[in-house]
Design goal:
five-stranded mixed sheet
Length: 171
C-alpha cells in the first residue's frame, strides 16, 4: 500500500510540474528564448554582421527585464558569431560577463508593453516601441536602428516564447 501511495504521489508531482507554466522572463524562459533565437533565421542570419560588433570579446549581451520587477530580475542572452550566424549560446540569469553599452543592450518594459511588442501590435513594432518609450533601452541605438527588421523579430520572440506574467517577479 505504501509503495502505491508513493507512486501516486510521484506521478501527481510529475504531472503538476509539467503543467506549470514558465514565468515570463525567468531563467527557464530565457533558456527557451535562446533556443528559439537559434531556430529563427531572421535573427541568426539577419544579425550575423551585428553580432561581430563586440569589441573583440567574442560575444554580445542582451539583458532584458520586466519594469515592475526591477533590474534584479534581469535575464541575459549571450550572442556569438559562429559560422557567419548570430547564435545564442546562453540564456539565463546574468552570468558575470562584463556589460559594455557601446555594444551590448539593456531593455525593459511593462508587462503590458512586452505583450504588445510580442504580438507586434499596431504601434508596438520595433521602431514604434523605441520611439514611443514603450521599450526602455540602453545600448547602441544607431546600431539597433540599422537592424530594425531583425530587432523587431527579437521583440516578437518575447511573445512567441510562452510565459506567465504573474504578479510574482522571477527570482
Amino acid at each position: 500500500m505504501l509503495k502505491k501511495m508513493i507512486l501516486v504521489t510521484t506521478v501527481t508531482i510529475a504531472l503538476t510540474s509539467s503543467v506549470m507554466a514558465t514565468e515570463f522572463m525567468d531563467k527557464t524562459w530565457a533558456k527557451k528564448t535562446c533556443d528559439a533565437w537559434n531556430k529563427n533565421s531572421t535573427l541568426t542570419k539577419g544579425l550575423a554582421e551585428w553580432s561581430t560588433n563586440n569589441k573583440d570579446r567574442g560575444y554580445k549581451l542582451i539583458q532584458i527585464y520586466r519594469t515592475q520587477c526591477n533590474t534584479k530580475s534581469k535575464i541575459q542572452l549571450n550572442i556569438v558569431n559562429k559560422g557567419g550566424k548570430a547564435i545564442c549560446t546562453y540564456g539565463g540569469k546574468p552570468d558575470g560577463k562584463k556589460v559594455d553599452y557601446d555594444v551590448d543592450y539593456l531593455m525593459h518594459a511593462s508587462d503590458e508593453d512586452w505583450t504588445c511588442m510580442g504580438k507586434a501590435s499596431f504601434g508596438c513594432g520595433a521602431m514604434g516601441a523605441m520611439m514611443s518609450g514603450k521599450l526602455q533601452f540602453t545600448g547602441p541605438k544607431v546600431e539597433a536602428m540599422s537592424v530594425m527588421g531583425p530587432f523587431g523579430s527579437f521583440l516578437e520572440l518575447t511573445g512567441a516564447v510562452k510565459g506567465v506574467k504573474s504578479q510574482t517577479c522571477p527570482k
